[in-house]
Write a structure and sequence with these properties.
This protein is of the alpha/beta class. It has helices spanning 21-30, 46-57, 77-84, 93-105, 157-176, 193-207, 230-248, 260-271, 285-291, 309-314, 320-326, 331-345, 392-412, and strands at 3-8, 38-42, 62-66, 89-91, 119-121, 125-127, 136-143, 146-153, 179-188, 211-216, 219-229, 252-255, 275-279, 300-305, 349-355, 370-376, 381-387.
């Protein structure tokens, strides 16, 4: 079933309003193994909407429209559909009465403009809107010799959601039966996208199924999908996930909505461990990310933003000889920060980060993006030197990403 979504509204072409309705529709369709072949946004222009409708209908079995069903002059969806497919509009006295009663219940006067919303397509299914005044529609039309199903929904998300649940979802189930699409997102950290793609080569040749690789926010995501009945699809996804876990091992840190900070939090909680942080160049971003996770007070005790040399000495216990000999941005200072904050806060683990986030402050020996990260436990201190590129914000973010990954492996391995 080739499917096209058309979101209508000039406001969606600007910077102030996002088309979130298409995502809701797509999510429902994918539950039944229906992918989207085309998605478009058109402003409030009769000619443009008609042109897009006829183009979409020429190659798609299912057209889904949202928006443009309001009472104002720029709400042109019904008129556009009627002209594009030679359909008749007529006023429904029942819907008009329903709109009038809705206004009366709220103690409001109904504008004559609202009567436009009582216009329906003669001979086609009208969808009752229990959450607003604009009805929706399910039209079955013949276009270029083939049957097309056209669903027309209001643009208000709350109203759309009601029709998806009450009308569109049951219809899709009746068309698709038990066929469903199951998705799984596997998340890789500490590997560039090109390396992930290279290691996926044998997997792709073996399965010959669609999957997508995306690099996003310091991680690489592998998006898997399988179609069939839900149980069968679930087994297929589980088998593929197990195979990829074997391939990527500890580099695979989570699935679906997992974030690295959530995964670290679960590991610390399961281990009954606690954590403290000492940050310089990241300015508290690591502590912020950790405490963005609900329940983080179970394992995160606190942190210090030791930006100056004096605070590195007094709060995190850095050896002044190390600063004198190696500078504040050095392996020795990062190690001291991690060990010192762990002792100072009496936690299982401590993390120390020091570096040059830029855009100034770099040198030939220590260019902008140089970062030293350490993780300390009672028995061991690990260190990593990194050279990150990009803006100040990106360098700070990637520094915390690397620190969280180091900590994850530290706890995972029971150090």
């Amino acid at each position: 079933m080739k499917t096209s979504i058309l979101a209508i509204g000039t406001e969606l072409l600007g910077t102030s309003r996002l088309d979130t309705n298409s995502l809701k529709i797509t999510s429902l369709l994918e539950q039944y193994g229906i992918g989207i072949n085309r998605k478009s946004v058109v402003g409030d222009s009769l000619d443009e909407i008609i042109r897009e409708l006829r183009f979409a209908a020429s190659g798609h079995d299912l057209l889904i429209l949202t928006g443009g069903l309001g009472p104002t002059e720029d709400d042109l969806t019904k008129e556009s559909v009627a002209r594009a497919f030679q359909l008749e509009l007529e006023e429904s006295s029942e819907i008009l009465r329903s709109i009038e009663e809705r206004f009366a219940r709220r103690g409001l006067r109904m504008s004559p403009l609202n009567a436009r919303q009582a216009q329906i397509f003669a001979g086609h299914e009208t969808l009752i809107n229990n959450r607003g005044t604009a009805p929706g529609f399910h039209l079955t039309v013949t276009f270029e010799g083939s049957e097309r199903h056209i669903w027309v929904f209001p643009g208000v998300p709350y109203e759309l959601e009601g029709m998806l649940e009450n009308d569109f979802g049951p219809w899709i189930r009746s068309q698709r039966g038990e066929v469903s699409r199951v998705r799984r997102i596997l998340k890789i950290i500490g590997m560039p996208e090109s390396t992930v793609d290279e290691q996926l080569g044998p997997f792709y040749k073996k399965h010959g199924i669609p999957f997508t690789i995306l690099a996003s926010h310091g991680e690489v995501q592998i998006h898997l999908q399988a179609d069939g009945d839900r149980a069968e699809s679930g087994r297929t996804i589980a088998a593929m996930e197990a195979e990829l876990r074997e391939t990527f091992g500890e580099r695979m840190f989570g699935v679906d909505d997992d974030s690295i900070e959530e995964v670290v939090g679960r590991l610390l909680t399961n281990a009954g461990a606690t954590l403290s942080t000492a940050e310089s160049c990241t300015g508290g971003l690591l502590a912020s990310r950790l405490t963005d996770v609900a329940g983080s007070s179970r394992y995160f005790v606190g942190g210090a933003v030791a930006y100056s040399a004096q605070l590195k000495l007094s709060i995190t216990g850095v050896d002044p000889a190390n600063i004198a000999a190696h500078g504040e941005v050095s392996e020795q200072v990062a190690r001291d920060m991690a060990s010192g904050v762990r002792r100072r806060f009496n936690t299982t683990y401590g993390v120390g980060i020091t570096g040059i986030a830029g855009p100034g402050g770099g040198s030939d020996e220590k260019p902008v993006g140089t970062v030293h990260i350490s993780v300390a436990s009672e028995s061991e201190v690990k260190h990593r030197k990194a050279l990150f590129s990009g803006s100040r914000e990106l360098i700070k973010y990637h520094s915390t990403q690397a620190a969280l990954d180091m900590l994850r492996l530290f706890v995972l391995r029971g150090r």
